[in-house]
Each structure stands twice: as structure tokens, then as C-alpha cells.
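Input chain follows. Return C-alpha cells only.
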Amino acid sequence: MAGNNGKYRAGNRLLSIAIMTALVAACGKSEDQSKAVAQPAKTDAAPVASAAPAATAAAGQAAPAPLKSLGVSELLKRAGAALADSRFVQPAGNNAAEYYLAVLDKDSNNAAARDGLREMFPMATGAIEQEINAGQLEEGKRAIDLMSRADANNYALTILRGKLDLKRKQLDGEKDKQQREQDKALAAAKAAAAAPATAAATPAAPPPAAPTQAPAPAPVERAPAPAPAPVAAAPAPAPAPAQAAASGGTNRDATLVNRVNPVYPSDAARNRQEGWVEVSFVVGADGKVRDASVVNATPARVFNAAALRAVQGWTFQPRIENGKPAEQTVRTRIEFKL
């Protein structure tokens, strides 16, 4: 009830100001008419709201040119009409605040204009707050600057400036977030569009090379020289077990089926060293290598470890003796050439 009474009293005060404004306008009518005889009134036909008045009022300067050309009585009359329409600070160039300020530019002691500004201040700040809440920050700033001409130190205007700055930061943060999301979506779309083209342009991968334990810095070896027990030369294919059993049993040596090339030692490659290693090992009945050892090497101990690691990865078809798998000792030479 107290709030409604306050609004009712504020409305009565504004109505009183509007009536007083009309009376002042009537008193000054004869003066305006005498001026009109000397110079035809051209301001009534001139547009009141324009971009230039809005920019000038927002800058806190003197009243815009169309308002400056109006007389005091006409300005007060228009201010009263703006109050009746609740056009306190909007629209730019056609609101009560600008009309009253234009009056004070002509007559700094005009009581009607001062009272009108003072009485409308609460309504004006309420309208400004609505502009800020709606995100109309430029209009809100213009209206704050406009009312600052009437009372630069008004506390309500200080509060509104703080709200405007906070709202601006909030909107800027939302814009930055949206921009980041748009950039991320655009980058993802570009990557998705480029993926098929890249896949189409990529040549087919070559067939995989023979498995190695590690990349070799240089070609590892040439064809092995003849050895006491050569294993690289593959004998004629052995008969199937069923055929072997039918013939009463056969014999054949172990046959290499998977050869792992040795890794050329990095120190030897760097020093441009070459050599060979003769190794001995046992091929078990399961075709796997065991008990590998170095028989001879040139130079000594440079390529031994690489050679042993290689042969331990070899696999064989085991020796067949009387139709059954059996162990066999094998000796071979591995050469290391650049």
C-alpha cells in the first residue's frame, strides 16, 4: 500500500509539472508568435528524433540543433507531452529529459525545467535499468550520460553505471564463449572434410618387409658364403608325413622356414666396419633354435651379439630321421657388409 501511495504521489507531481509546463508555455506563446512574424517557424516541420541529436545528447554536450532552435515555451510544452507519454529518456531527441535540458541551456534558472528533471529522476532511472536488463547497453549509456547533465553526482546513476559495466562483461563473456564454440565446430568440420581427400590422396602402403627386431642403419648381410653345415640352401620339399610313413620312413636335414636378419651394430656402422660371424646352434625337434654360440668371428666380438640374437629368432622344419622329427646341430656364417 505504501508503494502504491508513493507511485500515486509521484504521478500527481508529474501531472502538476505537466500542467505548470503548459501554463508557462501559454505565457510565452505571444513571445514565440512575435518571433514567428519576424522569422517563419521552421522547427515544427523539422524532425525531432535523429541520429545527430542522439549522438550529441549521449556525449553530454549542448542540446542538438533542432532543440536549440525551439523557444523555451515550446520546449516546456514538448517536455510536458513527453512526460504524459512516459518518454522520460527515450527515444533519443524526443524525450522529457532532453527538452528540459534544452530549456536549462537557454535559461539555467528555469524553475519548471529544474523541478521537472528532479521529479522525473526516479522514473528515468527505472527506464534506464530496463534498457540495461534488456541488453540495450548503448542506449542505457546514452541515457545515463543524459541524466548526468542534470545531476552528475546522483547515486542512482552510479549504481546504474556499475550494472551496465557488469552486463557488458557478461555479454562479452557469452560472445567469447559462442565464438570459441563456433571456431571449434568450424575446425572439426574442416578436419572432417579434409579426411576423405587425404585418404584418397594417400598411396597404398607397400607390402610389409621381413620382420626385424629393430630398424637397421644399413643393409645387414649378403648371401652367406658356403659353410660346413649350410642351412640357407633349401633342399627339395620333404614328403608329407603320411607319404613318409607309407614308404617306411625317410631322412632329411632341417630346413630354414623363417629367417630374422641381424641388426647392424650402430658403432660398427658409424665406423664403417664389416665382418662375419660363424655360429653353431641346435635345431630342436620342434623346429626352434637353442644353444646358439659363436664358433669364430672377424673382427672378434664386434658382431657376435647381433648374430646370436638373429639366429635365436630363426625357425626350421626339423630334421626328419626314419620319418620322425629329430634334433640337428647346424653351423652357418652370417656376413655383415655395408
